[in-house]
Structures are given as C-alpha cells and as structure tokens.
Amino acid sequence: MKSLIHHIWIVLYKDFLLEIRSKEIFTSVLIFTILEILIFNFAFNPSPEMVYIVVPAILWVSITFSGVIIINRTMQLEMQNGMMKALLISPMSREAIFWGKSFATAIYLIAIELILLILLTVLYDLNSPLMSVFFISVPCILGFSLVGTVFSVISVNSRAQEILLPILFLPIVIPIILCAVNITSNLLIDLPLSESINWINLVIVFDLIYFIIGPFCFYTITSD
Amino acid sequence: MIDTKQPYLQVDSINKSFGRSRVLHDISFSVMQNQVAIVRGMNGSGKSTLLSILSTHMSADSGTIFYKGLNSKKNLQDFRKSLGVLDHLPMLYDRLTVEENLHFFAKVYSIPDFGNQIDYWVDKLELNKHLNHKIHHLSHGFQKRVGLARSLMHNPQILLLDEPETGLDQKSLEIFFSILGDFLNNGGCAIVATHNDFKMLEKFSLNFLIEKNRLIQQ
C-alpha cells in the first residue's frame, strides 16, 4: 500500500514537473477555457433569471472541452520516446500509473474550475455559495478524469487520436456531466444540499465503479 | 557466489503470432551468468518481438520464461527489477533534463542512495556536461548514453538491448562495450538483438539466428 501511494506520487510529481518545464498543458488550456467563457458570454447574454440556468451549462461545457484536451495531451506525453513502455516494464504497478495519471488530470481540472468560477462570478455577477459548488464539483471531476484516462490509452494509439477520444469518452461520461450540471444548478439557486443528494450519490457510485474497474481496463488495454 | 550451473534466464517454447502471422515459433534457449546471447536475423524476423516478450511488455501466446529457476510470471515484480532495457527509443522524457529523468527512474525503481548511483553512471558515461540539458537538446548518441544510464542504474542482472550500437560514434561504442564487458564480468547476463558482430565480447557470446520464425544456435 505504501509503495502504491509512493508510486502514484512519483507519477503525479513527474506530470507536474513536465508541465513546469514545458508549459504545454495547463497554460494553453486555461487560455482556451477563458476564451470559451468569453464567447459564451457574448453569445448568450442571459437575463438575471436565466443566469442560474446558463452558468452551470457554461461551466461544465467548458470543463468538458478542457478536460478532453488535457486528457489527450497528458497521455500523448507518455507515448513519446517509448515512455509508456518504460513505465509498463518497470516494477511500478499499473494501478499506480493509472491513478497517478487520473489524479494529475483531476488536479489540472480542479485548478481550471476554480479560475472559471471566479471568472463566471465576475462576468455574471453571481451571488451564490461558490465554495460549495467548488467542493461538490471535485468528485464529478475525479470521475471525469478516471473515465478519460481509460479512454485516452485507447485513443492515443490510433491515428485519429484527437477526434477518437471525445467520440469514445463523452457518451460514457454523460451521466457525470448531467449530475454535475444539476448539482451546480441547485447550489446556485441556493437550494439545500439535500435537494441534490440523489445526484451526489450517483456521482459517488460512478466514481467508485471507475476507481475500481479503471485500473483493470487500463491493465487490459496496455497488455499487448 | 556465482552459480554457473543454473541458467540465469531460461526461455522455454515461446510462441507468438500477430493475427494469422506467426512471428516466433517454439523459441527456447538459456543464458548463464557472464554470458551474452547475441540474436541476429533479418529485419522483421522477430528479434524485437522476442525482446519485448522478455521485457514483459508483450506476452507470449504460449511458453515460459524462467529467471534463476523461477517462473517470471509468478515473480513478476522481482523479474522486472532484475531487467535493464535499452530500446530503439531512448525511453526518456524529452522535456526533462538528464538529471530529472535519472531521478525519476531512480524513484520508480526505489533505488536506495540514488544520488551516488546517478553520479557514478553520469561519470562513467561522461554525461557530466549534459546533466542539466533537456533530452530533446541532446544528440541521438548522448540520448542513448542517458538511456544506458537509466537501464543500468538499478543494478539489473539481465540486460535486454535492441540494436544498441545504432547511432553511436566510435567513442560511444568504446564506452558501451567497456560497460557491457564490466557488466558481464560482474555476473550479469545480456540478450542483444543486433546486426553487429560484437567481436569485443566474443569470449562471453552465444550466437543465435532467428530464421523462418525459429531460433537457431550458431
């Protein structure tokens, strides 16, 4: 167990070190997401009553698009120079590689979500419990990252990797996005958390399923 | 104490096909300590596939690999720790420096006191001047040297080398053969897929040829 946690940490640390050195993922995706939010802002211009319906949709559409780019790019970096092979033939377990990559993606997305929430608050003059939205989004983003990591291993080996990932991944992750939009919407209109309990339970079940079967799928895909 | 009677690595009846195309047919051989098995063959004959199977990256359709008499599948973690692999690709992160790459692999292989190990291999492979250079700024030959440091840093007992001489200049080749000679003298064994004659290691060599999917000892 100690060795597993240690190896997950090594993968995470390496991903962040790569990002610090290359600035390829977080910075570019953040700029892309801010532009996305601004385009939505110009396109919708919602009335005050509509804001609480529109904002959750904008938030989660932006996170979904950013997530697809991040997941694709982080896995592409592993495929360069035969790095994935080096990891797979090392004594590190495949669970550690899978969870390490998933957590790295989740941390990028959580950071992006935090910035998006601040931006949306400014743009739409929101007066809602944003910290609750932020904390409740963490399990949604985790589930999103776990599923994404599984599918990125499939897509990254194909020629049409950039288009294949969203085609494979988005239909599977729709339940998480649906839950996330509903939870965010309920929180923004100041409904108590108990109103969203079914959605939250669904997210937790989804996370647990992918937390358990994710490494197994990863193992199967990366074997031969 | 070196036990010279038991094969260090024993490959028993390995078969591998890709779809209908059979690549390896009933491959069996064994390598003792201090020996290097040199596997030659035409392009596409299956040398790299054999090394991929030995490195545990690919699984064989049937057959067994024994490491010090133990089934490698049942002792996978130990077997992987005992392997050092140098492939066509350097297996290094392009955007990280030489030092950061070596640190990363030292942690992956849980090498105790890895600072000294890294210093040792950096000196030995004359990489001191390039320690803070990113991998993509290095020439192919230097990338290969870093790859060799990566594959030897955790003191493996078995080296798997896929055409290791490709892209190396005379100086790098001398360093490479000297390191491989030391490695074999110190009780290691190696399997090398190559087109080179490897005359400098003749006293350690077992020569094999893969022809028509079968391994022939020469």
Give the key terms.
heterodimer, A: mainly alpha, 0% strand, globular, B: alpha/beta, four-stranded antiparallel sheet, 6 helices, 28% strand
Please specify the SSE layout and strand pairing.
The complex is a heterodimer of chains A (224) and B (218).
Chain A: H1 2-22, H2 26-44, H3 48-79, H4 83-88, H5 94-124, H6 130-155, H7 161-188, H8 197-222
Helix pairs in contact in A: 1-5, 2-3, 2-5, 3-5, 3-6, 3-7, 5-6, 5-8, 6-7, 6-8, 7-8
Chain B: E1 9-18, E2 21-31, E3 36-41, H1 47-54, E4 62-67, E5 70-71, H2 76-81, E6 83-86, H3 98-108, H4 114-124, H5 140-152, E7 158-162, H6 170-185, E8 189-193, E9 205-211, E10 214-217
Parallel strand pairs in B: 3-8, 3-9, 6-7, 7-8
Antiparallel strand pairs in B: 1-2, 1-4, 4-5, 9-10
Concise summary:
The complex is a heterodimer of chains A (224) and B (218). Chain A has 224 residues and is mainly α. Chain A has helices at residues 2-22, 26-44, 48-79, 83-88, 94-124, 130-155, 161-188, 197-222.
